[in-house]
Structure formats: structure tokens, C-alpha cells
Specification:
Blueprint lengths: L8 H5 L4 H9 L3 H15 L2 H14 L2 H46 L6 H9 L3 H13 L3 H6 L1 H9 L1
Helix pairs in contact: 2-3, 2-4, 5-6, 5-7
Length: 159
């Protein structure tokens, strides 16, 4: 099965493995082992594999148990997606907040920022870059010093 895991053949091969799935299910720890196999198939397979997996399970288990296995894995995937989305949202919010802070400092210091550069700052997602720009915005007298770090680097040499 692992050999077919990421190929188009998997969906075609699965129906032939009903007997194997039934043997796994009949074993003492069969339900848990079957759950692991189902997770693998759903994780690596495409829609055709998902459909074939459901058909094989229907041949081995009753309707309710099949739906429970498929649903429990689906719920896990949804939760993983939710957690990933939350982490991405937090990272984007952090980047956006830092970018807006840079623009606010530049505005207060009277440093003009053209729209293209403003968008470049807002689009930046690298926190280290944003932190450098933020620190330089506090001391620089021009936008090029903030973004390129020229004066910042020469000040360090003079120190």
C-alpha cells in the first residue's frame, strides 16, 4: 500500500484490498490499526483515493463505523487547518503592526513616504527586516537610511 501511496494507481488498487482491510479490522487492535491506514490514505491521496477508501470501508464496516472513521479524520484535518490559519493570522497581524509602526514613526518624524515604498513596507512579512527598519526609523533622517541602512551602518563604524 505504501508503494502506491502517492500515485494514481492507489485508487485503482484499493478495491482489491477489501479482504486485507477485513483481516486488519478483525484483529484485536484492528480498529486502531485501520484508523492509522485510513489517515494515511486520506492524507496522501486525492479525491479518487478518498472515494475508494470510503467504498472499501463500507465493504468492511457498517455505515455508522465508516462515517465515524472518515468524520474523525476530517475533524482532525479541520482542526489542523484552523490552527495553521490562526498561526498565519497572528504572524500577519504582527508583521502588519510593525509595518504600520514604521510608517507612523516616519510620518511623525516628517519623512515623506511615497505610495510604492509605503506598500513595500506594508507587504513585508519578514519580522527581522521590519525590526531593523523600525529601529532605523527611530534615528534616521531619510527614507533611504531606514530601508537601506546606509547611515545606520556608517554610524556604527564611527562609534
Amino acid at each position: 500500500m505504501l508503494r502506491y501511496g502517492r500515485t494514481g494507481e492507489l485508487a485503482r488498487e484499493l478495491p482489491e484490498w477489501v479482504g486485507l482491510f477485513a483481516q486488519v479490522q478483525a484483529a484485536p487492535e484492528g480498529t486502531e490499526q485501520l484508523r492509522v491506514v485510513i489517515r494515511y490514505l486520506l492524507w496522501t491521496g486525492d479525491k479518487a483515493v478518498h472515494d475508494s477508501t470510503g467504498q472499501v470501508l463500507h465493504s468492511v464496516l457498517d455505515e455508522q463505523r465508516t462515517e465515524e472513521l472518515m468524520r474523525s479524520y476530517g475533524e482532525e484535518l479541520i482542526e489542523q487547518g484552523r490552527q495553521q490559519g490562526l498561526a498565519q493570522g497572528l504572524a500577519q497581524g504582527l508583521s502588519r503592526g510593525r509595518a504600520e509602526g514604521i510608517l507612523r514613526i516616519l510620518n511623525i518624524r516628517g519623512i515623506h513616504v511615497e505610495e510604492g515604498v509605503r506598500q513595500r513596507i506594508l507587504d513585508c512579512t519578514d519580522v527581522d527586516t521590519l525590526d531593523s527598519w523600525f529601529d532605523r526609523a527611530l534615528q534616521s533622517t531619510s527614507l533611504s537610511e531606514v530601508l537601506d541602512g546606509e547611515a545606520h551602518a556608517s554610524r556604527r563604524k564611527d562609534s
